[in-house]
Amino acid sequence: MKTLLPFFLLFFSVLLFGQKIFSADYASGAEVKVYVVKYESQADLKVYKVRYGSLAQHNRGLWYFVKYASQADKKIYFVDNESQADLKIFFVKYQSLAGWCNKSKMPLLY
């Protein structure tokens, strides 16, 4: 039982990882390069911008943009060309529509 405890702590800490995002001014200051696509069907992740940081829980596409890099869980940079991106996103109008389309890209935001 004692050997399983670290596993469960690690597992649940990954599930509770928030999505507080900082938009970097330069690609060198970012962990993930992001491209915003025009159509939902092109996206790896559908993102909904929440109003409060407490709502940005789990890796489900609920993002809260912070003002300072030190407050962020992830630092991203918005690229101009799709070919430069690690992740393609589409901003949705409703929270219920947010989520992963391409789950193989999920580790980018852990």
**Reading side by side through the largest sheet, how are the strands ordered?**
1-4-3-6-2-5
Q: Roughly how many Å apart are the termini?
A: 27 Å
Secondary structure tally: strands: 7
Q: What share of the residues lie within helices?
A: 10-25%
Q: Enumerate how many helices there are, as a single number.
A: 1
Radius of gyration: 15 Å
Extract low-pLDDT stretches: 7-17
Q: What kind of sheet is the major sheet? A: 6 strands, parallel, barrel
Mean of residue pLDDT values: 87
Q: How would you spell out the order of helices and strands? A: HEEEEEEE
User: What percentage of amino acids are in beta strands?
Assistant: 25-35%
What structural class is derived from the secondary structure elements? Answer: alpha/beta
Shape: globular
